[in-house]
Amino acid sequence: MKKQKSYKDEAGKLYLVPTPIGNLEDMSVRGVKILEAADLIASEDTRNTQKLLNHFDIAAEQKSLHEHNYKQRIPELLELLKQGKVVAQVSDAGMPSVSDPGQELVAACIQEEIAVISLPGPTAGLTALIASGLVVQPHYFYGFLPRKKKEQQTELKNLLTVKATLIFYESPYRLKTTIANMTEVFNEQRQAVICRELTKIHEEYLRGTLAELKEYLNETSVKGECCLLVEGQLEQEKEEKQIFQEPLKVQVEQLMTEGLKPNSAIKEVAKQNGLKKQVVYNDYHDLNESS
């Protein structure tokens, strides 16, 4: 067990400073003061952070800290912190470490018993959630899904039974594909919200079912930073899952009572269970027993 007293003596401190996700006026007074007083600012992209510093007339030294150089940079930052220096860490937008670089430095500081102090501030996920119209509590923040279709669908299947509102970040260039994958894995009647350009002049919320959003994106492209929120598991989906847990033969018979012919029912059950049609056919006709 380790106990942190955040403001004890003059020891070095790592401040995690959130930055605006769009509107620069969202920068907090405290955040500006910390950046002004810091001995060094560890930035995801120094060029991007420099625009923020210029806006608030902050003269401060920066060093980059991102996914490609953190192994080299962290020992340098730890040495400064051990000397009693104050380091402020920022990402390009929002909270450091949330789908951005940073958690490695935090973990290293905790290991070395250096105080880590987080400032509250802008974060796209919660900003979008409270205006989405979806259930706010509970919610489940995921961040960026894998890019490859098979890996993405595997992750979505893992989230299938989560009842909380799901929060994702997504590139506008991949949004159409991601929602198409969601309509395959989730019930397409789940409510969902695309939030784009949050806090900026072109801020927009697109609310509808996954099916409606898929149709919209087939006809219209979106631009800008996007946050995607999806309703948690529906009662209807839970009932469907219970049906799929029945023996294959029972599943076929249930579909036949709904009007499907035997071959069509066998084909549908095979699809729903990810099986070859012959496997379901054999089970339905009791052909799996050895003669």
From TrEMBL:
Location within or outside the cell: Cytoplasm
EC number(s) on file: 2.1.1.198
CDD domains: RsmI
Principal location: cytoplasm
Signal peptide (UniProt feature, chain positions): none
Enzyme class of the recorded protein, top EC level: transferase
Role description: Catalyzes the 2'-O-methylation of the ribose of cytidine 1402 (C1402) in 16S rRNA.
Protein's name in the database: Ribosomal RNA small subunit methyltransferase I
